[in-house]
Write a structure and sequence with these properties.
mainly alpha, Rossmann fold, 9 strands, 5% strand, magnesium, dolichyl-diphosphooligosaccharide--protein glycotransferase
Length: 637
């Protein structure tokens, strides 16, 4: 938001009067162009300009990044991926040159990244890992010492100025690798200094064991601080990257988010396509000539691939290195296959050059002994045929690769258009004839709330829809996408999982005016609340273990059913009743829930809530608790 306001003010001051909304809409595409330039700079830092241009081209069209950089995608990642790539470029530049200036600029862009996205933790662990690996490989240098020491000190102090970070770099596990590497490189630098200053051999032999003891003491101290909780352990979201079952067991609210699920193989193909095969080629050429900067690319590729496999959201962090390595691999390919002289017969060229060298007496002798015309013609003809065949193979190979790149562009355009360009509140579908249908139930419901409810109304829903209710309907919500208090979210889960009578009391205690539920059974929309219901229960039972039990919502066969064979707890729950109330009357007694492929429940009654709105395709349903005087209930004391 600060970036958007700054751009808006700059444009306004130079006479370009634009709407702040337009700035927000085009912010992500603008920064995506900067990301492509950053990919070019990063690639040229470790390779050449041809590979850099190819990497920038891949970065500009890869769906794995476009998913968060299309117009209207106003989220943290729109800025953060540019900062990630550009910070890595600056780091490699500073590590190669040993420039304190570049190190300071690296720290400043790291500070910008910290203010933009929590993914800054990836940077503050990748750079120390790079330094640590170089130390293990025996590649310590003064340039490395100057660049990392400058970056760490300035970057850490700058990041601590961000309110939500504060003193975390000094007492959380996410930052300990950077601190430990900073201490280690000081010890290595001190060792180098003593070795340089000490000429006596026996003194040198004493230095290494002494410094080894210091390192061991640091490791033991760090282990003690972690064991005694003086240093906070990894946060649940980050710890789930190492233990894939951790979030499901202990932090279900993290595991319930679709972006935090493991990545399917189909997702890799959709987001990367031919880059999947070009990346290993680029990695081969990188490892063939392994400079200090290229070690960083190898580490990034390994960690990026692992994290992207664990969490689908982290395809964002994998895409830049995939584009860089693909650019390097394709650059080497074109450099080889478009260099026609490389396919000429080197032995023949060498002989021709020798025969033309008048200073070589052996060459003069050979020049006198002329071969017969028949033999010369046969050799020349054979060489010309072989050379022509080589060029044909050359052109055919280049044509095939160029064709694949063209198909990749078509694939990227299709994926971007169909998967990543639709707003989340407007859905698209197709009828049996292939005609595109627009499903606008969300905006229809929010518009109804805006025009038919008092401005002070409070709307209850699952937290996924909190931002939309606040932004589009302009109504107060109890939880939204930025709710940090897990008890608030668990309370919503408890209401949905409770019986009507119990839920009614909680709803009145919280002064809730309307309840919103999403149902996709009519259209086959799988992202509705019934499919999320088990996650709601898992989140809720962490706070209310005596009231909520997941196993109660499975039927006698152990299935998650919504029909007449559903468990009593499921049939009595508010979620089930609000979702399926009157649905069987509309679709028929033998109707099918298309999202779950199950028969609809036939008898669903409501006693404590009134239906006030159902959208055209029955996706959004709104209910209002009945007044107490109608129910004849006495308010609790």
């Amino acid at each position: 938001m600060v970036t958007s306001a700054t751009i808006y003010k700059i444009l306004d001051n130079i006479g370009l009067h634009v709407n702040i909304r337009d700035v927000c809409v085009f912010l992500a595409p603008f920064f995506s162009s900067l990301t492509a330039i950053s990919a070019y700079l990063l690639t040229t830092e470790v390779s050449d300009s041809i590979s850099g241009l190819l990497a920038a081209a891949f970065m500009g069209v890869a769906p794995g990044y476009i998913s968060r950089s299309v117009a209207g995608s106003y989220d943290n990642e729109g800025i953060a991926i540019f900062l990630l790539v550009f910070t890595f470029y600056l780091w490699l530049k500073s590590a190669r040159t040993g420039s304190m200036l570049y190190s300071c600029i690296t720290a400043l862009f790291y500070f910008y990244m910290v203010s933009a996205w929590g993914g800054y933790v990836f940077i503050i662990n990748m750079i120390p890992l790079h330094v640590f690996t170089l130390l293990l490989m025996g590649r310590y240098s003064n340039n490395l010492y100057v660049s990392y020491s400058t970056f760490y000190v300035i970057g850490t102090l700058a990041s601590m100025q961000i309110p939500f970070v504060g003193f975390q770099p000094t007492f959380t596990s996410e930052h300990m690798a950077a601190l430990g590497t900073f201490g280690l490189i000081q010890i290595v630098a001190f060792t180098q200094y003593l070795n340089m200053m000490t000429t006596r051999k026996h003194l040198r032999t004493l230095i290494r064991p002494f410094l080894t003891l210091i390192v061991l003491a640091m490791v033991l101290l760090l282990s003690y601080l972690v064991a005694t909780k003086k240093i906070a352990p990894w946060a649940g979201r980050f710890y789930s990257l190492w233990d894939t079952e951790y979030a499901k067991k202990y932090v279900p609210i993290i595991a319930s988010v679709s972006e935090h699920q493991p990545t399917a193989w189909a997702q890799f193909f959709m987001d990367l396509n031919i880059l999947i095969w070009l990346t290993p080629v680029g990695l081969y050429f990188v490892m063939k000539d392994l400079s200090d900067s290229r070690v960083f690319l190898v580490l990034y590729a390994i960690l990026g691939s692992y994290f992207a496999g664990v969490m689908v959201r982290l395809m964002l962090t994998l895409t830049p290195i995939v584009c860089v390595l693909s650019g390097i691999g394709l650059g080497e390919f074109f450099r080889t296959y478009l260099n026609f002289s490389a396919l000429d017969n080197p032995q023949l060229s060498k002989t021709t050059k020798s025969s033309n060298d008048s200073s070589n007496p052996q060459a003069k002798g050979k020049a006198k002994a002329k071969p017969t015309p028949e033999k010369t013609d046969a050799n020349n003809s054979s060489f010309e045929i072989g050379n022509e065949f080589s060029k044909m193979v050359q052109w055919f190979t280049v044509f095939c690769i160029t064709l694949l790149i063209g198909l990749f562009q078509i694939h990227c355009t299709w994926v971007t258009s169909n998967a990543y360009s639709s707003p989340s509140v407007v859905l698209a579908s197709y009828d049996s004839k292939g005609n595109k249908l627009i499903i606008d139930d969300f905006r229809e419901a929010y518009n109804w709330l805006t025009h038919n409810t008092p401005e002070e109304s409070k709307v209850m829903s699952w937290w996924d829809y909190g931002y939309q209710l606040a932004g589009l309907a302009n109504r107060t919500t109890l939880v939204d996408n930025n709710t940090w208090n897990n008890t608030h979210i668990a309370t919503m889960a408890k209401i949905f999982a409770s019986s009507e009578e119990n839920a009614y009391e909680i709803v009145n205690d919280l002064d809730i005016d309307y309840i919103l539920v999403i149902y996709g059974g009519l259209l086959g929309y799988s992202g509705d609340d019934i499919n999320k219901f088990l996650w709601m229960i898992r989140i809720g039972q962490g706070v209310y273990p005596n009231d909520l039990k997941e196993e109660k919502f499975f039927n006698s066969q152990g299935r998650y059913s919504i029909g007449n064979d559903a468990s009593p707890a499921m049939r009595d729950s508010v979620m089930h009743k609000l979702t399926y109330y009157r649905v069987a009357d509309f679709m028929g007694q033998n109707g099918l829930d298309r999202a779950r492929g199950q028969r609809l429940p036939t008898e669903v009654t409501l006693n404590y809530f009134d239906e006030v709105f159902t959208s055209e395709n029955w996706m959004v349903r709104l209910y209002k608790p009945k007044p107490r005087d109608i129910l004849g209930r006495v308010p609790p004391k």
